[in-house]
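Q: What residues go here?
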């Protein structure tokens, strides 16, 4: 990008921030550091802390590197990264995006995730693959929250987003209503990778990682297509 264009873009951002300063989405105070959160609310976010190096499940002991499940049966992906636990107020922000169409929340959550990934993701992937929704779910919701988040993360990290390389070929029951074992069965065979898709390093992105069944099934489909390195990125990890 030419220097003149970068300077013009920076000037436009600074002018926009001056005329329309960010406002905290939680308490309506003035935003902090170009975020739609104030400093106090940023500090109150539920950081993930010590977690399984493979699936990001929160762990009580700092001396443990892997959770019991990953020791017995590791997931298809190499690592999952999430900055927060799925607790208040992160759960509220995600639910407002996902179920109430508050797309401004995607900008904030995407910025928070991208900031965390700068220091945690290591070598960046060739592309970000947002978890796809079935067309029926897209029609009812109007958008894919994972794609909205991926666009903001990709823009900040300068990693392309590929939302056409995988499609959801089966309409499944909502995972949130099912126990862990039923989730794995529910999502089995739900994804199909587009013919001709090639990449060595990919990041799967979703809003929340609960049991990991969905992202693991998607990783399985991508792995069969020849992808060697797979990470999972999510805003929050459920306990």
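A:
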């Amino acid at each position: 990008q030419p220097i003149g264009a970068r300077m013009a873009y920076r000037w436009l951002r600074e002018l926009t921030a001056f005329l329309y300063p960010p406002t905290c989405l939680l308490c309506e105070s003035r935003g902090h550091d170009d975020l739609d959160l104030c400093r106090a609310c940023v500090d109150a976010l539920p950081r993930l802390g010590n977690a399984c190096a493979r699936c990001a499940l929160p762990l009580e002991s700092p001396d443990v590197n892997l959770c019991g499940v990953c020791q017995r049966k590791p997931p298809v992906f190499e690592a999952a990264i999430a900055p927060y636990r799925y607790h208040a107020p992160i759960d509220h922000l995600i639910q407002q995006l996902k179920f109430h169409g508050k797309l401004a929340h995607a900008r904030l959550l995407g910025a928070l995730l991208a900031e965390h990934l700068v220091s945690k993701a290591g070598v960046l992937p060739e592309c970000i693959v947002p978890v796809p929704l079935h067309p029926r779910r897209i029609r009812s919701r109007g958008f894919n929250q994972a794609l909205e988040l991926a666009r903001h993360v990709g823009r900040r990290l300068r990693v392309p987003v590929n939302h056409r390389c995988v499609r959801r070929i089966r309409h499944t029951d909502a995972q949130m209503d099912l126990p862990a074992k039923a989730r794995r069965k529910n999502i089995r065979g739900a994804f199909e990778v587009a013919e001709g898709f090639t990449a060595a390093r990919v990041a799967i992105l979703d809003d929340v990682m609960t049991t990991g069944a969905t992202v693991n099934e998607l990783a399985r489909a991508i792995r069969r297509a020849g992808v060697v390195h797979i990470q999972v990125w999510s805003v929050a990890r459920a306990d």
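A: Context that may help when evaluating the design: The CA atoms of residues 61 and 235 lie 22 Å apart. The radius of gyration is 18 Å.
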